[in-house]
Write a structure and sequence with these properties.
α6 packs across α9. The chain is built from 10 helices and 7 strands. With 248 residues, the chain is an alpha+beta fold. The strands form 2 sheets. It has a 5-stranded mixed β-sheet with strand order 2-1-5-3-4. A two-stranded antiparallel ribbon has the order 6-7. Bound molecules: iron/sulfur cluster, FE3-S4 cluster and FE2/S2 (inorganic) cluster. The site of FE2/S2 (inorganic) cluster (FES) has 12 residues, from loops. The site of FE3-S4 cluster (F3S) has 13 residues, from α8 and α9.
């Protein structure tokens, strides 16, 4: 069963642009990315769109669909009624390059700043050993596909461009939490989380967790525990005294 859907797609570049209306055929079982591809093939050959796997695994096809940050390849057309106008716009938190493609290099710059995994020395037989129970918490964060939907959603950087210099965003809070929870990592990341990556800017609105296509509980399982560990360090009187007399 096919029908014609009405799409409004943002077209333009860094100098400006606007929403353009299209009517595009939809077939049963299709997702928004299928419709964008059909639009490209039939009516707008130069429409810029980033995608790769069409399976929710590469994190490339992020966009805002009816104002909500989503992966186009995981958004089924059956989510909408046939009469609905479907608006597709680029991620708002990052500068537009062209049409639906944004410059997400902010995220790669943040990734490069995170101090690398620093494992303790290997055991005498040359192996690293860890127990499953010890890695379970940090494993959740390894599911991240770096789609940047959480980064796009977080109001701290979405609504205040100037905050990008101080706050790296939710994806990098869970990267820090992942390393901090890793049983073999030797680096103490708590001061850096607060001072260099801006953990204190997060006011726990949890919007990042709501949009994550991997279902990662960024706030409850990553950011809040990291905040608690920073507080433990900073406000424990013995830790404070130790740091003052140069032992920590
Ligand atoms: Fe995307 Fe989730 Fe990773 Fe954020 S944490 S970049 S929303 S997969
Ligand atoms: Fe932003 Fe997520 Fe915190 S949306 S404010 S990082 S809980
Ligand atoms: Fe890879 Fe959508 S195309 S996640």
């Amino acid at each position: 069963m096919s029908y014609d859907a009405r799409f409004r797609v943002w077209r333009g570049d860094a100098s400006g642009g606007d929403l353009q209306d299209f009517t595009v055929e939809v077939n049963e079982g299709e997702v928004v990315l299928d419709i964008i591809h059909r639009l490209q093939a039939t009516q707008a050959g130069d429409l810029a769109v980033r995608w790769n796997c069409k399976a929710g695994k590469c994190g490339s096809c992020s966009a805002e669909i009816n104002g909500r940050p989503r992966l186009m390849c995981l958004t089924r057309m059956s989510t909408f009624t046939e009469a609905e106008v479907i608006t597709v716009t680029p991620l708002r938190t990052f500068p537009v390059i062209r049409d639906l493609v944004t410059d997400v290099s902010f995220n790669y710059e943040q990734a490069a700043r995170i101090p690398a995994f620093a494992p303790q020395p290997r055991d005498a037989d040359g192996n690293h050993r860890m127990m499953q129970v010890d890695v379970e918490r940090s494993q959740e964060f390894r599911k991240c596909i770096e789609c940047w939907l959480c980064q796009d959603t977080c109001h701290v950087i979405r609504d205040h461009e100037g905050n990008k210099a101080a706050f790296s965003g939710p994806r990098f809070m869970i990267r820090l939490a992942e390393l901090d929870m890793h049983p073999l990592d030797t680096e103490d990341r708590r001061d850096a989380a607060q001072d260099d990556f801006g953990l204190g800017y997060c006011n726990i609105t949890k919007c990042c967790s709501e949009v994550c296509p991997e279902g990662i509980h960024l706030t409850d399982n990553g950011i809040i525990p990291l905040k608690e560990r920073v507080v433990d360090r900073r406000y424990d009187p013995l830790t404070w005294l130790g740091s003052k007399i140069g032992r920590r």
